[in-house]
Amino acid sequence: MPQLTWVGKDKVKNHHHEVPFHLLDKIRDFQAAPGKPDNRRDNILIHGDNLLALKSLLPEFGGRVNCIYIDPPYNTGNEGWVYNDSVNDPRIQKWLGEVVGKEGEDLSRHDKWLCMMYPRLKLLKQLLADDGVIFISIDDNEQAALKLVCDEIFGYGNFVADFVWQHRKSSQNDTDVSLSHNHTLCFAKTRSRFQLNPLPADENKFSNPDNDPRGAWIADPMDAPNVRENLSYPITNPKTGKIFYPPKGRCWRFSEDKFQAALADNRILFGKTGNSKPQYKRFLSEAQGKGQNPFTVWTHLNTATGATKELMQIFGEKVFDTPKPTELVEYILTIAASTNAIILDSFAGSGTTAHAVLNLNRKDGGKRRFIGIEMMDYAENITAERIRRVINGYGTKPETQQGTGGGFAFYRVGDALFDAEQNLNPAAPVESVRRYIAYTEGLPASAWPEHERPPENGESQHKNPVSPYFLGMKDGAAYLFHYEPDRATDLSLDFLQTIRTETLPEKPERWVIYADRTLLSQEQMKQLGIIFKRIPRDISKL
Q1: Which of 136, 331, 355, 472 would bridge with 443, disulfide CB 3.0–4.6 Å?
Q2: CB under 8 Å to 541, separation ≥6 — which residues?
Q3: Looking at residue 80, what is its pLDDT?
Q4: What is the domain partition of the chain in residue ranges?
Q5: Which among 15, 14, 8 has a CA at the least distance from the CA of 108?
Q6: Nearest to 536 by CA among 449, 468, 447, 436
C-alpha cells in the first residue's frame, strides 16, 4: 500500500507516545433549568490543546468511543486558525520547534498540517471502540493527503466511504470553479465489526400502478455483482420470447427455481410495457423492515449558509465563520451510532456536535454522550455558551427553540501527571492517578471497582469492599495501588492483612501491588504470589 511522505513525518510518527499525560481540571458543571426535558447530563467539554486532551481521555475512554466526528482546519492557506501558513501562534511554533526540530522552520503549510494531524489521529484511533467509526470533514485542498494518512493509520481495509456533502447551493463567482462540496472521510476501527445503520425507506419512490394487493412497490434490477454459474441461466420474456442473460461480469440475484416462484407470484416485471429486461418487485413493507442504505452523496442536508443562520439564531449575531449545520452531524450520528453511543469531537469549534447529540436525545429518548475538545479561547464564550443555550432554549418569538435539557461539565487541561524527575504530581487527584494506573495495566473499565467507575448521570459512587487501594482483576491477577500523595506507603504483612480477600468473587492466582517500598523479602513475595511495583519507578508511561 502506498504511503505519503512529508518533511517532519519521521518526527511525528510516534509522537503520540511522547505526549506527556495531563490531568483534567473541572471548572464547573452546567445543568438544565428546572422543567426542561430529561437528557444526558454527564457530557464533557474540554478547553485546551486537543493533543494533550486526547491523551488525558485514554484512562477513562480508551477503546470506548463509538463515533468520532471532527472538522479540522482545512488548511486552505487563508484561514485564521492556530496552525495557519505563517504559524503566527506561539503554541504551534513552540510545538514544531520541539517535535520537528530545526527542519520545522522550512516546512510548507501542508507539511505543518500533516505534522499536526498525524499524532492526533493516532490518539483518536486508540480512543475508538473496536466497532467504532470516525468521520472527518475536509475539502479538496487536503482530501487526498488525508485519505492516504488515514489508510496508513486506520488501515486501507477499514475504509468505509468518502461521503460528499453539498455545502453550497448558490453559484460561486470569485473563481472559475464554483466549489459546492466537502468530503467526509469515514474509517472504521475494524471494518468487519462495523456496519452503517439503514435509513427509513423513501415512500415517495414507491407506487402501485397495477393495484397489487400487497401494496406499493418499486422495480429493482434482477442482476447482482459477481459471476456464479448457478445464477447465470437464461430468462425468457413470456410476452416477446426474447431471451436475457445477466450483464457481463454479473449474475442474476437468485436461482432459477426461486425466479420461477417469483414469476408465478407476480413479482417479476419486464418494464412498463412488458418488453424490457427482467426486474424484481420490492414492496414498501419489505423496504420499511430492511431500511435503505445511505448514499455517498448528500444533497438533502442543510448548507453552510444555513449553519451560519442557525448559529445567528442562537447568539443573535455572527460569532463563527465556518460552522457545520447541526443537521449534518445529526445525519452522521443517525447512520453511524447507536442511541447510547459515546460521541467525540476533538475540534469542537462552535459546538455543533454537542448540539446534534442533545437534539437527537431529545427526539428519540436516546442516551448518547458527547465529549468535545476546543483549543481556542472561544471555548467558553462560544462553544460552552452555545451548549448552555441549546440545553435551556434559545431564539426570539416566533422562532424560539425549546431547550433540550441535559448538562455537561467544563474542564481545562491541567498540569502534567509526572514532573520533570518523573515523580507523581502530589496535587493530582488520587482517583485520577488510580484510573491512570488501571488503564496502563490493561484493566478494562468493567473491571474497575465501583468507586472507580465514572458515575452515570451524576449518580453517587460506591465504596470498594476489598480495599481502598484495589484497582480490579484481570486474568486471575488482583491489582492494588497502595498510594498516598502525602506519605510513603509500604508493602508489608500488616498491609496485606487489611485486604478483605473474602469479598472477591474468585481467589486471585497472583497479586500485583504498587507501593513506595516493600518490607517483604523476595522469598515472602514468591510464596504469597506477589509482584511488587515501586512507585513511581515501575509506573508505565502512556
Answers
A1: 472
A2: 21, 418, 422
A3: 52
A4: 9-199+294-415, 203-290, 426-534
A5: 8
A6: 436
Q: Which residues of the chain have pLDDT under 70?
A: 77-90, 104-105, 445-462
Position 70 scores a pLDDT of: 98
Q: What is the largest CA-CA distance in the chain?
A: 95
- At 300, list the grid cell: 438533502
CA 169/CA 179 separation, integer angstroms = 10
pLDDT score for 37: 93
SS (H, E, C) 322-391: CCCCHHHHHHHHHHHCCCCCEEEECCCCCCHHHHHHHHHHHHHCCCCEEEEEECCHHHHHHHHHHHHHHH
* Three cell numbers, residue 130: 473496536
Helices (H), 139-255: 143-154
Question: Whole-prediction pTM value?
Answer: 0.85
pLDDT of 355: 98
| Grid coordinates given for 286 | 419489505
| Helices assigned H by DSSP within 89-142 | 90-99, 109-127
The answer to whether the beta carbons of residues 83 and 360 sit under 8 Å apart is no
Coil/strand/helix, residue 8 = coil
Model pLDDT, residue 335 = 97
DSSP element (H, E) containing 15: helix 15-18
CA torsion angle for 375, 376, 380, 386 (degrees, to 10)? -100
With H, G, I as helix, E, B as strand and everything else as coil, classify residue 37: coil
* CA distance to 314, 357, 362, 383, 414, per residue, from 320 (Å): 12, 20, 25, 10, 27
CATH architecture of 9-199+294-415: 3-Layer(aba) Sandwich (3.40)
Using CA atoms, how far apart are residues 341 and 352, in angstroms rounded to an integer?
Answer: 17
Q: What is the CA radius of gyration of the chain?
A: 29
Phi and psi at residue 64, in whole multiples of 5°? -120, -15
Return the beta strands (E) in 291-430 as ranges: 297-298, 342-345, 369-374, 393-394, 401-402, 407-416
Cell triple for residue 529?
Answer: 504470589
How far apart CA 439 and CA 252 sit, in angstroms, is 52
Predicted local distance difference test score (pLDDT) of residue 84: 44
Instruction: Give the residue among 521, 430, 439 at the shortest CA–CA distance from 469.
Output: 430
pLDDT value for 454: 53
